[in-house]
Fold this protein.
Amino acid sequence: MIGLGLRLTISGGREAVIRLVVLAAAVGLGAGLLLAAVSGINAVNAQNDRYAWLDTGAKNLLPIPPSLRHGAAAAAPPPPAASAASGGATAATSREPLWGLVTTDELNGHLIDRADVAATGPASPVPPGIPRDPGPGQYYASPALSALLRSTPASELANRYPGHQAGLISEAGLASPGSLVIVVGRSAAQMSRLPGAAEVTSLNTTPPSSCGADSCVIRVGINSTFIDLILSVVALALLLPVLIFIATATRLSAARREQRFAAMRLVGARPRQISVIAAVESTVAAVAGVAAGFGLFFVLRVPLAAIPFTGQPFFPAELSLSLPDILAVAIGVPAAAAVVARVALRRVNISPLGVTRRVTPRAPRAWRVLPLLAGLADLGFFVVHGRPTSLPGQVRAFVPAFALIMIGLVTAGPWLTMAGARVMARRTSRPGALIAARRLADDPRAGFRAVSGLVLALFITTVAVAVITTQNTKRGGPLDGTSASNVLVDQFTFGTRTSGSGRSSGAGSAAGSALGSAPAPPAEALARLRQISGVQGIVELRADPGLTMSSPRLGIQPGFPAAVVSCAQLASTPALGRCPAGAAAAKVSPFLTAGHFASRSLAGVTWPAADIPAKRLDGLPLYCLDVATNGSPPAVEQARTVLENAYPTGTGSPHTLGEDTTAQNTANNAYQQLADVVILTSLAIAGCTLAASVAAGLADRKRPFSLLRLTGARLATLRRVVALETAVPLLALATIAIGTGFGASAMFTTAQLTHPLVAPDAAYYLMTATGIALALGVIVATFPLLRRITGPETARNE
């Protein structure tokens, strides 16, 4: 039987060859997309793990922007068993420690990871990607940063790093081809005076994705619970539509093959023999398609690597496939094709006359709606009773709920299609509509199969856009005033510099103990700042431990710690507010440039006067230094360079308020980008599924349609039948999928984000309408084919 199956597959005439080629091409496209999805998940993990060495010594620092900008949550301190200096390192230790401090820098809004190091001997640990530790006056830079150092004026970038470039950092030390990383060499004496620096005996090798919520400290990257959540959602959103497309492709020409197998049964073939022949035919096409899919994947791997799914491109080698991945696709897809062929022929095996007489299949039952309702009820439970407190618990709560909803849409689809078809049959009297309605009611599974991919894509799109829109609204909008976004801030907390995202974000929250302090800015630095074209003012915020303030208008509660500022300086920076008339100093929020205040305009705020004489004001420790600029990149970067040289490396670089707001939304922006990729990919897969289903349906019904034309049916009527058979379930189920998406999103945002659902903007509705219009266009595109396959010769040949 295997030999006969191969012969029928390869030597079955022109129709068999065309069927084999089309099926192989369809399975190849689906397998290629499946491989791309799997390798993409592997690449996200690999890229995330490359951040490990940048977490060295993380426990010595305050929470800072890089952890937020790379999407990680603040982690708890490591357990006592962890290395005292390595931040959870698992590498072999060295007897000659390395002084190290990993911080951040910025250039035109782009994050630069900076590691200042000082070796204490030849056996000191060496960061990955460089041959040796740089000495004082040397540094190694990533290729992308090296290019920027050459193309950017030295006053805006290179002057921040002492010495000269000793070489490039190789791929081993970088998370992405576009990573901006620099390793700066210093002396041990210099490092010992840098706030936050520590001696480490080994570099951290524990990847962020291996860290739980409490197992180690993460500055950069995504810990295991977050990455499990992200990749679970991506897998659900991509793999299920791909599998549906592969299953749809393997059913091409299913009706024609059923007729041929029924004829074999009539002449004495046993059910087992028919199953073997069917499995051989489907498996041959699936094997050829899988081979084509692997070829497509390797051809497109380099272009795919350039797509910044996570906000950064990948190294092509990271889009890799493990042996289990390869075996799962190489064996699983042909096996699935054989199973689909076997299931499709169950009626032939029961009764060979069942196909030739076209026995109506059993109607789907109402129980098919239960999984969909169960998924929605699962989300509703957490709305009423509250979500789990731990992140792993939230993953276990919400991911299965959305998976159940997606499975429920696929399960309920045939029953909903049948219900809609029966309603249409009762309300129409046109021949084309009646034929379409009766065909849908007789075989709703086939009608839904054509649109199942698009239904899932619309649900995924709705949930992704609605949740991210709500999250963006919850986090707050952009700065109200463009002038405020151009203020460069250098803030000092507990003796070290910190950046906006690492400070308290609530104006009414406790400020902690005493504010930080730093020495007064050198006169030379102030003179150089004033000489920069575009610098408009300099404001020094001073710390006074006994000073408090309140402001109901700004949400500042009584007793909140205050900083003090000279009114003469504040007048040069109107974007930060103003003093009362006649006052020499004013009390301002110490978190003037962070969180709560960074998203509103302070230009019209009048701060309360401070009863502090000018002489005492000059003697107070410096808490924050603000430099107002015109917003031009040269002015901002030159001022940043001056500030970094005046106050050597702390826990972050000076930043503008605009950059601060962007930093707070970086993780959200990365999720938005990932959502866009998932949405576009799922819509593309849905379009392929729809095209394959419509083409298969026409090929299977060419004899009935040709007979209808011989009996007098007009071609326009047949076109109307084809259009309605696909458009009716498409539009009806698209409405249900979108409504379900909004309902599920509303429950999720209420339970998880503690924020009511915010309606998406016009771009979502335009994208949805465009997707549905393109789907209808696929249906219309089949009309020319309908004329060719329904001629009188088709009825004679059949």
